[in-house]
Structure formats: C-alpha cells, structure tokens
Write a structure and sequence with these properties.
Elements (H helix, E strand, L loop, with lengths): L4 E7 L3 H17 L4 E8 L3 H8 L5 E5 L4 H12 L4 E6 L2 E3 L4 H7 L5 E9 L16 H9 L4 H21 L1 E3 L6 E5 H7 L11 H11 L3 E12 L3 H4 L4 H30 L13 E2 L5 E6 L8 E4 L4 E2 L2 H4 L5 E9 L5 E9 L1
Parallel strand pairs: 1-2, 1-4, 2-3, 6-9
Antiparallel strand pairs: 4-8, 5-9, 7-9, 10-13, 11-12, 11-14, 14-15
Length: 349
Amino acid sequence: MAPDVTAVVVSHRSAAEALGCVGSLTEAFREESVAGEIVLVDCGSGPEETSRLAGAGADVFLPLPENRGYSGGVNAGLARANSPCLLLCNADVVFRPGSLRPLLEAVEEPGVGVAAPLAYWDAADRIRLPPGFASGFRSDLAQLSASGSPEREDARFAAFAREALALWQRGGTARHLTGAVLAVPRRVFDVVGRFDERFSFEYEETEWEDRVRGAGLALRFVPQSRVRHLWGTSASASPGAETRRAASRRLYWGRRYGPVGRALLERASRRRPAVGFPKTAEPRLAPREGAWVAVSTNPSLLPFAGAPLDRGFELPPEVAARLPSGPIYLREFRAADGRPIATVVWEKE
C-alpha cells in the first residue's frame, strides 16, 4: 500500500540536523497515525556524512555524488517518492507534536496548491520566523535600500508587520511561503513542473511558487502546524554559498524584472544604507505592552523574525551563534497597526 505522504528531506553537510529531522518526522508519523515514508537526500557531502546518514532510519537514503542544491535534491527525492502528497523539508527542521495533520488537511482543500507551517527560531518556541516575503520590484528595492523617506520606510515596514502578524496568528492565503517545509500534492508538480535546478542556492521556491500562483492555486500558511527551523545552520555549512546565492538572485531578478530592473537592484544591493540607528551593547529589549520586536540582518528590517514584547526580549545565545558577524537590527513596533516605535542595532562580533 502506498503511503499517505512522502517527506523529502534534503541535506548538505548537515548530518547532525538531518538525523534530528528524520527522528522528529518518524515520531510525528507514529503519534499522528500518518502513513508516511521518508526519502533522505544527501547532496554530495562526502563519505563521512554519507556514512552517518545511512543509519538515520529513512525509508530511502539517496546519496547524490554532487551538490545539486536544494532544488536538485528535492527533484531527486520526488523521483523516488511513492505517495500522492509530498512534504519538502530542509534538513535543519524539527517537527513539533501535531504538526503534520493540519498541513495535510490544508492541501486537501480545493484550490490550495501548497501549505507551510509556522516556524520557530528558538528552542523555547517564542521567536517566529517570517512566513514569507513576496517578491516584487518595489518590495525588493525597499528591502535592499532602506534609504527612502522615514515616513515611506515606516509605512512599508508596518504593512509587512500587519501581514506577518495576521498570518502568524490566524493563518490564511499568503503571497509567498518560506521553503523550509512545504506540503504539496503531487498533482501540483504535474501542473507546474518541478524545481528549476538553475537556482542552485535560494530563490528556487520563490520561482516555483510564482508558477503555482500563476496556475491559479493558493499558498496557504497554517499556524496550527508548528516546527522549529534552525535557520542559518545548513547555509553556513555550505562552501561557496554566497557565490551561488548571488547567481540565483541575478537569475531570478533578470527573469522577473528584465536587464534594467536587475541592474537597478544589483546597484542597490552594493550600497550600504546609512540608517543611523542607535547602538545597543546587548541584543535585548524591555517589556512593552501591546508591542512586538522585529529582528533582522537587513537595515530595512524586511523581512523579520518576531516575538511579543509582553515579557521583554533577549536574543537567545543559540540563535545569535547562527547569525553572521555584523549588524543585527531590533525594532519595537505596535501590534495594533505595525508602526515602528524604536530601532536599535547590535553589532555581533
């Protein structure tokens, strides 16, 4: 009998995280009485990692001789999947109890093409990672520049904050879903095709979701499904990640905005905005009723991870350790309308 769902877990130099992901999936299948299989794909990590992952307990272990990127790993896993529903997973994801059925039920709804869970960044499940960041020329430029008028920048931030809070709290249709975990009926791949392997690092799910939306199918964010995403772990272990990210970004911008639009965005990405936020010695904020904190490495704070400020906030050490050296921006904003209150910058050494 074919399983109800196939989880395709893609790893590259992330054996420790992949072992945890497979273990949490196995437990979730058992606890939620879901008939599932796990296809674990390793993208050219070498013999030591291959040896560790061979004993992970996946139903199918697929070691690829080269690093085909996340897109290539997903495509290789799909070719071995045996179910009508797929669960595409980064290796650095831990599934929380009760996380599977809400996702599987969401993609059974008419008109829904993809569903994603709420992802937490920290072990305490307090800091929510962005539900997604919809591409568009103006939004991409705003993310890079943070150099417009303060009123305009505040309005852009507030619009994103309102959208993020609504999705975190109530879920619903989104314009983009972060690709750490995606539940997808197989029929969707039959309609829109598989991931484009020319996107070797990032933008693969963005381009693919563009095709899903173009086919008239909805992207659904499901906060009842909860996972922990150790964001930054897999990316930091990948040699040449920045070069591949830049190539994927250039390809996506060129396809979507043409050569002129791409040139304008590339110029903006090379500038370092002078934002002038006050510095803080520690990444912490005092409690403030009715407010949230936004955390981002972008001076525009688009997109951001967020947490309520009812108990104050301090960036957990395990999260800070995965962030790159440099400025980390923390912004207090009103939950009622998303408007910024105050912003500080912490320099991570």
